[in-house]
């Protein structure tokens, strides 16, 4: 187990401070929606009321942990637990000892693996467990289906389950023993992080100077994100002015590179990989496209709205929650490349429509989906679970 510490105010621990000590336990791989969600939450929690650690359990000693690296750079205390393979009893012991030594009041988990670790490691410690499920896969393979089923079995043993959307809340409410523990806290975005970036990435600037229109995607390169549909739309007739910037990485990257080549997209599609400066790319997009087959409430769409970039998204529950067709963005039928192309052509033909959608999206996300609002609700939940006078443990 390794630890990193910054900020003197947080380094002193909470004994006698009256603050609630929270361990956010996230994924060790990548810095995508759920991990950025954790960072948005911890940045908005009041430090005079909450002492926050950000942690992860990694499978291999040499692997980097982007979540903890980013949290550390922001001044938060971080801890990395090491597991021998996908899951091991040793990691449970590490987490449990850490909870006891640092008097953790709440472990907040994010995903089936951390849910299981959090529930088992906290037994007998007095530590409360809060789980935030970040969404389900629309067409999982057998292995993933087993993991997601396991997660549903774990939820009744948590002290609170906080889904990000009403649809997820309804789904979880059907599980015996979960209904009374549900706390719907809708997704939020760190508006300050988005607003702080005004630089446009150099490649985006060059494309615009060449007269191109830029469609952008930020996220994982995996099946289920609908990227095949996006490629097909760009390969259609009349789409020659559009270029596509893909910011992110994933196991299907090479497969998508091959597909783009086979469709004749050539230099019109560029894979930029994972980029910490993703928001400087976003600032250069003419539109943000999310063609996913399933989502919770996608933070990437929120970030695009916060940057006043018009959104084109698949007509699925998670996207409909944010995008009102024709008012805060455009929706198209899932996996329908022709309709996606039509939506992009509509924006190209009517710059005033694009501007209006961007402005309406900005007002919608700032009024209803700020990270500060989300943190306020989680703060109240944490305080409900932990008595005002912290018990000796």
From TrEMBL:
Instruction: Please report the stretch or stretches of sequence annotated as the Glycosyltransferase subfamily 4-like N-terminal domain.
Output: 33-192
- Please, which domain of life does this record's source organism belong to? Bacteria
What keywords does the record list, in alphabetical order?
A: Glycosyltransferase, Transferase
Picking any one GO molecular function of the record gives: glycosyltransferase activity
Q: What is its EC number?
A: 2.4.-.-
Q: Which Pfam families match?
A: Glyco_transf_4 (PF13439), Glycos_transf_1 (PF00534)
Uppermost EC category: transferase
Domain named Glycosyl transferase family is located at 209-363
Q: Does the keyword S-adenosyl-L-methionine apply?
A: no
Q: What is this protein called?
A: Glycosyltransferase
Q: In which organism is this protein found?
A: Geomonas subterranea
Source organism lineage?
Bacteria, Pseudomonadati, Thermodesulfobacteriota, Desulfuromonadia, Geobacterales
């Amino acid at each position: 187990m390794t630890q990193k510490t910054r900020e003197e105010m947080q380094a002193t621990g909470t004994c006698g401070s009256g603050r609630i000590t929270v361990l956010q336990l996230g994924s060790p791989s990548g810095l995508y929606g759920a991990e950025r969600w954790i960072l948005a939450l911890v940045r908005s929690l009041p430090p005079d009321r909450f002492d926050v650690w950000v942690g992860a359990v990694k499978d291999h000693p040499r692997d980097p942990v982007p979540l903890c690296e980013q949290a550390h750079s922001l001044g938060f205390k971080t801890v990395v637990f090491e597991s021998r393979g996908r899951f091991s009893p040793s990691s449970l012991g590490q987490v449990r000892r850490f909870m006891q030594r640092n008097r953790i009041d709440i472990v907040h988990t994010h995903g089936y693996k951390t849910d299981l670790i959090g529930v088992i490691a906290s037994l007998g410690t007095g530590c409360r467990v809060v789980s935030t499920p970040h969404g389900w896969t629309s067409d999982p393979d057998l292995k993933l289906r087993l993991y997601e089923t396991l997660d549903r079995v774990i939820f009744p043993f948590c002290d609170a389950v906080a889904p990000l959307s009403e649809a997820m809340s309804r789904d979880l409410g059907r599980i015996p023993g979960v209904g009374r523990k549900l706390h719907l806290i809708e997704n939020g975005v760190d508006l300050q992080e988005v607003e702080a970036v005004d630089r446009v990435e150099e490649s985006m600037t060059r494309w615009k100077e060449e007269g191109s229109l830029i469609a952008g995607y930020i996220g994982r390169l995996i099946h289920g994100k609908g990227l095949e549909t996006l490629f097909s739309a760009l390969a259609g007739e009349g789409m020659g002015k559009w270029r596509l910037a893909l910011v992110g990485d994933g196991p299907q990257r090479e497969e998508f590179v091959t597909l783009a080549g086979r469709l004749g997209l050539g230099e019109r599609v560029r894979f930029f990989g994972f980029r910490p400066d993703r928001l400087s790319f976003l600032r250069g997009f003419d539109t943000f496209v999310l063609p996913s087959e399933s989502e919770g409430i996608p933070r990437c769409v929120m970030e695009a709205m916060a940057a006043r970039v018009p959104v084109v998204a698949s007509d699925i529950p998670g996207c409909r929650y944010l995008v009102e067709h024709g008012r805060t963005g455009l929706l198209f039928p899932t996996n329908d490349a022709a309709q996606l192309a039509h939506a992009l052509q509509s924006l190209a033909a009517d710059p005033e429509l694009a501007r209006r959608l961007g402005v309406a999206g900005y007002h919608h996300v700032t009024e209803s989906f700020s990270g500060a609002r989300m943190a306020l609700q989680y703060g109240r939940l944490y305080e409900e679970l932990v008595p005002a006078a912290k018990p000796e443990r």
